[in-house]
Write a structure and sequence with these properties.
By secondary structure, this protein is mainly α. It is 34% helix and 0% strand.
């Protein structure tokens, strides 16, 4: 037996059609009991050197060492 995982939105017309079609076939449909795994706060998703660089940049900007650009001037 082969297991195939399909992800689709059951609320769209296409998703409803696919689900109805699959129900007519000799397949077993198992709905997941949980959503994707949620990251805990213990997990680090960024490189510590990168985080330090961003925090240093933010503190420099608060000290007035940054440059503000108006959105109108971005594409001039």
């Amino acid at each position: 037996m082969t297991t195939i995982t399909l992800r689709f939105n059951e609320q769209t017309a296409e998703g409803k059609s696919l689900l109805e079609y699959l129900k007519t076939q000799p397949v077993e449909i198992i709905k997941p009991t949980t959503r994707r795994a949620i990251k805990t706060s213990d997990e680090k998703s960024y490189d510590p050197a990168f985080v330090k660089k961003i925090k240093d940049s933010q503190s420099q900007f608060k000290e007035g060492k940054g440059t503000k650009i108006k959105t109108e001037d971005l594409w001039k």
